Amino acid sequence: MRRSTIRSTLCWLALMLAPLNVQAAAPAAEKVPEYALDPTWPKLPLPNHWALGLINGIHVDAKNHLWLYHSPELVPKYALGAAQTPPTGKCCVAAPAIIEFDEAGNVVRAWGGPEDAKKQGYDWPSAGHGLYVDYKGNIWIGGSQTRVGADGSQPDGLYLKFSPDGKFLLQIGGPGPSKGSLDTTQLSGAAAVDVDPVTNEVFIADGYGNHRVIVFDADTGKFKRQWGAYGKPPTDEKLPRYDGGPELPKQFNLVHCIRSAKDGLLYVCDRLNNRLQVFKKDGTFVAEQVYEPMTKGSGSVGNVSMWPDAKNTFMVMNDPGNFETVILRRSDLKELSRFGHYGTYAGEYQRNHQMEFDLKGNIFTSEDFRVQKLKIVNGVKP
């Protein structure tokens, strides 16, 4: 075959294949936000020589303020010189458990901890976990401990609700061991909540000890309904964690997050099974997706947060087992980008626990003793 004939044939093939190639490449060309560390957030040092313990939860409210929940009792002893009697150094004292930061990273207010609980007459979690700001501005926190601690502390079977200034409003459950995943009076290591502004229901990821989503009235604490994986009744059967194979587990293994989208769908993180499951508000199963199926350790699906546009086009997902941030397209749960790696320097992740969008699409990440802010650098906006 002559060279001219070969060249003509190749050009014809290229023209015939071009529409297919363009169509296949369209999703990859989707404008996805890209990020870089914002070293100006928060404003440091924190006031009053404050030091932070383990970061238990973060959430962004309707004013674009970040709320942070940490464990004051887990500030390292070497950092508490100013709290000793007499002081052994100028730094530091443990910060209050709940801190509100404004958009610029300044502390707005802070409150909470075991002493506040004693004064107001409610139970404080033994091992704090999760913070959520509901549509009324109220603050929800829980705890993840499922056994009696070495210090005699009780398992966390509760979730708490407060006003923005720290006034105690509601306690669901109480300290003590699980009564089983079908019991409606007690939680067990509940990891996260989401509150529906339409029905005023609180959806709880009751997942360190129990294996379910459970729903209560957000004002009275009255039980409404519950479900396990695939919308089936939850069980307490001891199941092995997912092994990465084709057969997916029939029950949850550490329900670590729950988050609602504006269209009413609920997204549930089944952390140790490396998957995200989607439900309607009544518990009807809709879809699921597995990510990095061979991941062990902390698992690959830690939490999700919704991109703040009208359709919640994207989600950010925390992958704690691989020390990465993942951007998903919400409509089909497809992974669009993945970045991050292990390390202790600014912009790296050591024990990434939670990732949250703010109202401008920036991302906040929490670890044991710090929160970092990642800002959009490619002009994509919600």
Automatic annotation (TrEMBL):
- Which InterPro entries does the entry mention? 6-blade_b-propeller_TolB-like, NHL_repeat, TRIM-NHL_E3_ligases
Q: Which GO terms describe its molecular function?
A: zinc ion binding
Superkingdom field: Bacteria
Q: Where are the NHL repeats?
A: 186-219
Extract the signal peptide range.
Answer: 1-24
What the entry lists under Gene3D superfamilies is as follows:
TolB, C-terminal domain (2.120.10.30)
Checking PANTHER family in the record gives: E3 UBIQUITIN-PROTEIN LIGASE NHLRC1-RELATED (PTHR24104), PROTEIN LIN-41 (PTHR24104:SF25)
Q: What name has this protein been given in UniProt?
A: NHL repeat-containing protein
- Source species, please? Hydrocarboniphaga effusa AP103
